[in-house]
Amino acid sequence: MATVRKSSKSCTVNPLKMSQPMGGAMAFMGIKDCMPMLHGSQGCTSFGLVLLVRHFREAIPLQTTAMSEVATILGGLENVEQAIVNIVKKGKPAMIGICSTGVTETKGDDVDGYIRLIRNKHPEFADVELVYVSTPDFKDAFQDGWPKTVLKLIEGLVPEDRDGVVRDPRRVNVLPGCHLTPGDLDEFRDIVEDFGLLPYFVPDLSGSLDGHIPDDFTPTTLGGSSVEDIRTMGRATLTIALGEQMRGPAEVLERRTGTPFHLFDRLTGLGPNDELMSLLSRISGRPVPLKYRRQRGQLVDAMLDGHFFFGGKRIAIGAEPDLLWNIAGWMTDLGCKIAAAVTTTESPVLERLPVETVLIGDLEDLESAAVGCDLLVTHSHGRQAAERLNIPFFRAGVPMFDRLGAAHEISVGYRGSRDLIFEVGNMFIAAAHEPTADSWRTEPAPSEAGLPIPAH
What we know:
456 residues; alpha/beta; Rossmann fold; globular; Nase_Mo-Fe_CF
């Protein structure tokens, strides 16, 4: 069992974590015709907007209440109202998702109360969903903001009805964590549909931030889960939660609708995907398609081919808890040793990590602990540390702004797990030093050491 401790430094140096409001805003970006909005200063929104634009390389819909110093002190009702009025008039969204920031949380703005006043004053906004999530950025991290937003969506839109709901035996709710990419969601959707089931993702970044070009310009999100999809989540026969962070939303959905859930804390590797195939086969009543039996064989073969290069390697990882758990478990399956683990926030999975100590810290802590390691794993802000350490660098998580295709990376399923073996294994092979004529022998020959030469 790992020991979890927090860094005792006076300040953060080269931050690893992103803020809670960014996690909440990105979850809203997985809702169709939604306009995410940060209740705070313009600077809070601008920095987050730049970060997400660089990661996804797409136009990111994100608005602000533009709180000034005076407005912050006096209260933000007028700013919130004006922002909502402008967004509805210009964008005609189905939903406006509001995330708080440290400025307005410190003041103590009652945004839920503001929304009630605004609805009374503007009955013409009755068909626009207004969802508020408390996400102060002076506590918690990106991974905390995401499930809080999903929880609010369920509590605000899904009616409580455990007995009167007509179940669709083919429908499956999917609650993906923020550590999964749009490419992961597309892969997972294909897997579920191949069993004859209908997956409904909440949120669904694969519909909004997958890099497609729309036919017409829209100021809101391009796609994702619709408001109606969320309202009818109680009709599903099962909810599949992906990541420990989604346990809370899945439990609330079960209490409200009676829909049971199954949680996968990771979907990279052989064992977790065997469990997934067994579950889908059981609830669909269909055998596992030959396509996945073949992919499983390919993954096992890739593990056999790759373990020569992974075995005994020392890995340093810095990531959000669920992503850290996913990568560490997969690396350990292949024979690696997790020499350093740094994360951003607390989570039940941290104590189960295959490492002595997990540090809630920053990239400076990760760099110090990664000395002598064979691979550094974190997001793009760790690239300078890898250069200084002179070790291979595998990018994972958000942001990933110095490489193309961040939204299309796949790490789930048999195929995603197999391709990860090839990608990281090739990094190990490229980093190996080929012996030369002068470096081939590490010990002197018998004649050079003054020893008798054995007779043949």
